[in-house]
Amino acid sequence: MEFFLDTADTNEIKEALSWGILDGVTTNPSLVAKTGKTFEDVAQEIIKLVKGPVSIEAVATDTSNMLEEAREYATWGENVVIKVPMTPEGMKTVVTLTKEQIPTNVTLVFSANQALIAAKAGATYVSPFIGRLDDAGQNGLQILEDIVTIYDNYDFTTKVLAASLRHPIHVLEAAKIGSDVATIPINVMKQLFNHPLTDAGLKRFMEDWKKVPTKKKK
Ligand code: E4P
Predict the structure, then answer these.
(1) pTM of the model
(2) pLDDT of residue 216
(3) Exactly one of 14, 34, 83, 176 is catalytic; which is it?
(4) Boundaries of domain holding 21
């Protein structure tokens, strides 16, 4: 499973890159707003920092303006992926961008049928929002599983990108289901490293190591 970081914060991206396990980044308008920087500055900085795919979101709501945005963003780097909302205008945009070989990520997906449409439109990635589905009283992971099953049934090449992941169990279940990608906030990514038995075990090894006799100097 590929790991993307869900952030527009370049310090978080630098930290995750230093671990050597980061495959890409996803942003959204809310994450960009938190940085206090202009969209152009933050997006271009991330695109340069990260070798893998970087999803940046088109904010127009009609096909013609979405296409104009997408074509400009695509000139910023070969790793740019255009996030397009799951709407009829968005899907028309995806069909055209696919013909132009500009990668897309269909965002705000909350049902398996929406994911089916995104795949038929030729999307590169589809982003079901697991945590937000859970918040609304639905089973986000069940919808993720349905999407993976449907894509397998018909050999769709669209990659499933589990989004809105809120805790390590979301990541674990997404991996068991076979999601191609998980986009993860940095706090959750850090939690993936941790286990109290690792900390306790390391502490004991360090204490015992101090008891090992050292070789006498001649
Ligand atoms: C996906 O690409 C979105 O940026 C993100 O995962 C949404 O997560 P949230 O529901 O925690 O805002």
Answers:
(1) 0.95
(2) 81
(3) 83
(4) 2-209
